[in-house]
Amino acid sequence: MDIEFQNVSYIYDANTPIASVGLKNINLTIKQGTYAAIIGHTGSGKSTLLQHLNALLKPTTGKVKIEDREITAQTNNKRLKEIRHRVGIVFQFAEHQLFEETVGKDIAFGPQNFGVSESDSLDLAHQMLAKVGLSDELFNISPFDLSGGQMRRVAIAGVLALQPEVLVLDEPTAGLDPQSRKDMMALFAQLHQEQGITIILVTHQMEDVANFAEQVYVLEQGQLIRTGHPEDVFFDETFIQQHQLGVPQATSFALSLRQRGLKLPSLPLTEADLVQALTTYFGKGSVKHE
Amino acid sequence: MNKMILGRYLPGDTWLHRLDPRTKISISFYFIVIIFFANNVLSYALLLAFTFGVIFSSGINQKFFFNGVRPLFLLILITVFFQLFLTRGGHIYWSFGPFALSQYGIRSSIYVFLRFMMIILMSTLLMLTTAPLMIADAIESLLSPLKRIHFPIDQIALMISLALRFVPTLMDETITIMNAQRARGVDFSDGGLIKRIKAMIPVLIPLFVNTFSRAGDLGTAMESRGYSGEGERTRYRKLTWARRDNIAWAVMLLLTGLLFILRN
Ligand SMILES: Nc1ncnc2c1ncn2[C@@H]1O[C@H](COP(=O)(O)OP(=O)(O)OP(=O)(O)O)[C@@H](O)[C@H]1O
Ligand SMILES: [Mg+2]
């Protein structure tokens, strides 16, 4: 399902002396099946935007279209459940939402709320636990006995168990070790490729954007200042400098090579691109990179 | 939940902000005490006029203020309801079993309502215009005579300031966790009372767990920076008593005088 923002603004504590702007006049469309990344500095409105994707927040002005449902400030709180079933959100620090007696029950909690039977939801929970790379032995222990990283994985499994069509991820790998990070990113990519799930990822890791995203949205102080393919955004040096954004390591490596006089033909986005560019430059033809 | 202003501080520069926090706290308590001396229409009218006078002259955004305290009035109305139907005396207009609508019942429920209302308005105003740390400092300063009997004022003041400091954090966290559970299909506004209470379990458990672990971390962080609870505390912010604080107390004494003239 397509998601469209039309002139969306959101003001926290509207009409009070402590009102503050969360989003300002956002227009964007995220097509079904896209892998989208949202980047921007701390406090730029990324999490605020995410919460509009399943009507946890409703725009102060403007409207959000989720397939054929229109969400505006006037939208009633009832009948939002269907949207929440189809759009799953993994929150920042998702491990803080665990509460059940056992890992398995916690993962099964979401599906049960949406009407899946107890035994089916527990089956789902077993599957999802395996998907996020945790052993089935953890199924019957308390989530509070797990490490922080394991808790994060359980929380992610709890959202995957909803089997959403759109998966929204708010810095899902922040604070994980490098291997877990890789595993999780690979899992999301797999869901995207095999099941055509729309992925909307908020991240500070530009490598993840370069490796996976098809579309990047850049936020600054609540405004959408740029939309485009990762190359369009990261190769625009003046734009990157102006807004003090980071670029993927491969790109920044190539840029510093260029500064020292190496005339690379094209800029790389990923490690593989970089190797390709270097081998071309040094005239070895196209060596296959493993 | 978003509109709650209980425990919130609004920075500003009104005369109420500038009053010494000790003045504000002691006057608030003093006011709560003298409210109980009001016993007729005139004395209540006087106190009401005073309360609204302070609110209107404080320069605080009125719409925000009254919208914010509105949820608390629901609580009062429940109390008043019992007062109304369980008090007997004077002319009885209607009765059924233990319930009755009587002349005294009506009068005393109105008085109870007004008392609660004034207490809530004044204490909200105090919290809104006084930074949490100032409140803690003021309590410490006001209680300092108890040090002579070895009452652990410093520790208590620290506890109060930590508690006040974490009220907004806890509010924000509640909202975040509620949103995370909403995203997993919990509907907090659906069903009867029992169902709604049940829906809070997935919010309360993480909230408790996080609060305990945060408290543990905070304790470790404080100890690793050398906090031991002993030793005299020195301070950077000094409370200063100014002329306006004397004036504030003079007004209070005047109010008390008038109150005792008007009551019967
Ligand atoms: N509950 C809230 N009440 C009031 N203001 C808020 C609230 N949540 C966020 N804000 C404000 O809205 C703005 C955007 O916040 P948001 O959480 O969307 O940023 P973010 O881009 O997700 O940042 P981060 O990278 O730190 O997660 C910030 O200025 C923030 O202070
Ligand atoms: Mg965020």
Report on the architecture of this protein.
The complex is a heterodimer of chains A (about 290) and B (about 260). Helices cover about 35% and strands about 20% of the residues of chain A. Chain A has about 290 residues and is of the alpha/beta class. In chain A, the strands form two sheets. In chain A, strands 6-7-8-3-9-10 form a six-stranded mixed β-sheet. Chain A has a four-stranded antiparallel β-sheet with strand order 2-1-4-5, with no helix packed on it. In chain A, a hairpin with a 2-residue loop joins strand 9 and strand 10. In chain A, helix 3 packs parallel to helix 5 and helix 4 crosses helix 5. The interface between A and B is medium-sized, with 31 and 28 residues. The complex binds adenosine-5'-triphosphate (ATP) and magnesium ion. Magnesium ion (MG) binds next to helix 1 of chain A.
Question: Summed up, what is this model?
Answer:
Chain A is built from eleven helices and ten strands. Chain A has helices at about 45-50, 80-85, 105-115, 120-130, 150-160, 180-195, 205-210, 230-235, 235-240, 250-260, 270-280, and strands at about 5-10, 20-30, 35-40, 60-65, 70, 85-90, 165-170, 200, 215-220, 225-230. Chain B has a two-stranded antiparallel ribbon.
| Shape by Cα distribution of chain A | globular
Q: Which segments of chain B are poorly predicted (pLDDT under 50) over 5 or more consecutive residues?
A: none
Sheet with most strands: strand arrangement of chain B: 1-2
Give the cofactors and ligands. Answer: adenosine-5'-triphosphate, magnesium ion
Arithmetic mean pLDDT of chain A: 92
Distance between the termini of chain B: 42 Å
Features:
heterodimer; A: 290 residues; alpha/beta; six-stranded mixed beta sheet; four-stranded antiparallel beta sheet; 11 helices; globular; B: mainly alpha; 2 strands; 69% helix; 3% strand; binds magnesium ion
List the helices and strands and how they pair.
The complex is a heterodimer of chains A (290) and B (264).
Chain A: E1 3-12, E2 20-30, E3 35-40, H1 46-50, E4 61-66, E5 69-71, H2 81-86, E6 87-90, H3 103-113, H4 118-131, H5 148-160, E7 166-170, H6 178-195, E8 198-202, H7 206-212, E9 215-220, E10 223-228, H8 230-234, H9 237-242, H10 249-259, H11 271-281
Parallel strand pairs in A: 3-8, 3-9, 6-7, 7-8
Antiparallel strand pairs in A: 1-2, 1-4, 4-5, 9-10
Chain B: H1 15-18, H2 21-35, H3 41-57, H4 62-86, E1 92-96, E2 99-102, H5 103-129, H6 132-143, H7 153-183, H8 193-224, H9 243-262
Antiparallel strand pairs in B: 1-2
Helix pairs in contact in B: 2-5, 2-6, 2-9, 3-5, 3-9, 4-5, 6-7, 7-8
The complex binds adenosine-5'-triphosphate and magnesium ion.
